[in-house]
Amino acid sequence: MGQQMGQAWVRWGGDRQDQQALAAQPDWSGLGGIDGLWPRLAERHGQLLALDQAHGPAAEQLSFSQLHQRIGAVAASFQSLGVRAGEVLALFAENGPRWLAVDQGLMRLGAAAAVRGSQAPLEELAFILADSQAVALVLEDPALLKPLQAAGALQGLRFVLLLQGEASAAAAALPEPLALPLLDWPGLLALGEGKALLEPFAGPEQRLATLLYTSGTTGRPKGVPLSQANLLHQLRTLGVAVNPQPGDRVLSVLPIWHAYERSAGYLLLSRGCAQSYTNLRQLRPDLQRVKPHYMISVPRLWEALHAGFCSALAAMPPAKQRLVQVALAVASSQAQGWRRWRNLDGALLSPLARLRGLALALGSWPLAALAEQLLWPAVRRQLSGGCLRTAISGGGALPSHIDAFFEAIGIELLVGYGLTETSPVLTCRRPWANRRGSAGRPLPGTELRIVDPETKATLAWGQRGLVLARGPQVMAGYLRRPEATAAVLDGEGWFDTGDLGCLLPDGSLQLTGRAKDTIVLSNGENIEPGPLEDWLAASPLVEQVMLVGQDRRGLAALVVPRPGALDPSKPGLLKELQGEFNRLLAARPGARPDERLLGVALVEAFSIENGLLTQTLKQRRDRISARDTAAIDQIYAG
Fold first, then answer.
1. Is residue 32 pLDDT above 50, yes or no?
2. What pLDDT is attached to residue 216?
3. In whole angstroms, what separates CA 374 from the centre of its chain?
């Protein structure tokens, strides 16, 4: 670790434990790209299970040897279709072995995929197709063919590939003939049959690996080109947080195209883990079927598991409820004591506070040990199959009570932080440095600075400011968006995360809010509130409106009504307003499912005089949220 003395600036080279963890991982020098993994893994792990898809028509299992062969066959098939190095194909599909085979088959040719889920709004998918200058399109199934054809989005493509469904039946169902080749999965593989297995692409690590899209402040997505070097940095450094072994099981529930899921997936597969794909509908039965050792997800999933536990607890007889509640309290007390003794409880503690923590942990130990023997194994089996050793949360802040719950029942819950533009992980908590309330320490090779949002002067340790990051995982810039790039990347390579936080002297980052307006829901979805607020403000009922929902399960609205437009004493008014606003939002072009309100509160006006508007009449979102905390909490409590 290096640091600027007296200033919140850390250059993290890794501490002793980091270096030991990295030294214990496989040697990934000379890979050239992520696609270079698979020949090595086939040689090392051969017949070990690599991928498992238990649901749907594409259900299958692949060993590491079969996965290597499949990637080579897909690469050869794409090559026969004329795909060349440097070209981009759009990939709009969901989790499964076929997705990974396409992703890596393209990388083996030196090409790349522009990725998004198949359930994204049609307007967004059409924009990505055009903006990425994709030469071809890969779809989950035929469902998007007709709407994309009607929108004229397929013009100029060389071919369309369906991962599921028959090409002939899909083409016959279209109202107009498709003016380009349409292939299905068996048809694609037939093109590469008998061809020599292609070697991993020998090109510079700075070449394009993938193209992701993130929302812009105007609602127009921005392309984020990530290089092989960006992804390889994640592969080589994420091992400071987890140390999986060959044969360990992983359950994958996040969208596979998401930067967080991809980097974690590449890492876990590189260690010989078996990755099983699931979805939210199948999650609970798959937890019992797979019995995963590792899971990667967003706060909303951990909240859902905790809610399931609470529901089961409420259904128990009163005496058993009290027993479990006492056991939770004791386990939480012991965990808190150990955290304080190890100096991992929030901010850094004094020696006396640490000794008090040790006393608390030792005093709670007998009852906590009894609960670990008799109670928590059954709870872990019910929640996650009983084998979950490490859970990793990212994509938003983790509520403290969720953090405490998993710690109490004996599941290590680590937290990471990053953005799509940073591939995505910048920081993560380590098992030996799992500081509650923090986003962890930087990955090796990563620099963080805390600066004044206005002057950009570097602040002191512990002072809150804007978080800047620099490192091998940071993108080079947005796709053909020089103005957007200049707004977040300076000439020295510092990336403006848009988040507020502070650095502790041990290098841990504590996040305290967002400097930019993007709302990140607890399911990891990013919402740009500005366009939605403008849409709602057009209502004759609304004078001012501000959306909230950071790290919550959905959006809510703080509304300043137009004078005389509403009767606050009317029964059911807030529910009526919620319904009316949701109808308005649903009618908005390009509306997304997450852009709906869970509730509404009527609040006092925002003005320059009360400090809630700037001189240019921009909302001070943090101050409004602080003033109306009670109203926000009441919405979500309901």
1. yes
2. 47
3. 35
Q: Do domains 2-6+413-471+480-518 and 520-637 have the same CATH topology?
A: no
Torsions phi, psi of 194, nearest 5?
Answer: 80, -5
**Residue reference for tokens 């051969």:** 46
- For the chain, first and last CA: distance in Å? 46
* CB 157 within 8 Å of CB 136: yes
- The CATH architecture to which 2-6+413-471+480-518 belongs is Roll (2.30)
Distance of CA 70 to the CA centre of its chain: 27
Residue 370 pLDDT class (50, 70, 90 cuts): confident
Distance CA 364, CA 273 (A): 36
- Taking only the tens place, the pLDDT of each residue in 310-355 is 889 989 999 999 999 999 999 888 888 888 888 887 667 888 888 8
Query: Which CB contacts under 8 angstroms, 24+ apart, belong to 43-47?
Result: 44/246, 44/272, 45/246, 45/272
Pairwise CA distance, residues 463 & 467, whole Å: 11
Residue 526 reports pLDDT greater than 90:
no
Helices (H), 342-395: 351-374, 376-384
Side-chain-side CA neighbours of 43 within 13 Å: the count stands at 5
More confident: 282 or 193 = 282
Whole-angstrom distance, CA of residue 15 vs CA of residue 443: 10
**CATH pick for 520-637 out of 3.30.300.30, 1.10.3720.10, 3.40.1350.10, 3.90.1150.10:** 3.30.300.30
CB atoms within 10 A of CB 137: 24
Distance CA 103, CA 95 (A): 12
pLDDT tens by residue, 116-157:
999 888 999 999 999 999 999 999 999 999 999 999 999 999
- Token code pair at residue 521: 């829901």
Of 318-322, 373-377, 470-474, the range with the highest mean pLDDT is 470-474
In words, the CATH class of domain 65-202 is alpha beta
User: Torsions phi, psi of 270, nearest 5?
Assistant: -65, -20
Domain locations in the chain?
Answer: 2-6+413-471+480-518, 65-202, 520-637
Give the residue from 138, 184, 190, 191 showing the smallest Cα distance to 164.
Answer: 184
Distance CA 335, CA 496 (A): 35
Mean pLDDT of the chain: 91
Q: Give the whole-number percent of the chain exceeding pLDDT 70.
A: 97
Residue 396 in this model has a pLDDT that exceeds 50: yes
Rounded CA gap, 322 and 316, in Å? 10
Looking at residue 563, its pLDDT comes to 86
Q: Can you read off the two tokens belonging to residue 304?
A: 């859902």
Say if CB 456 and CB 18 are below 8 A apart: no
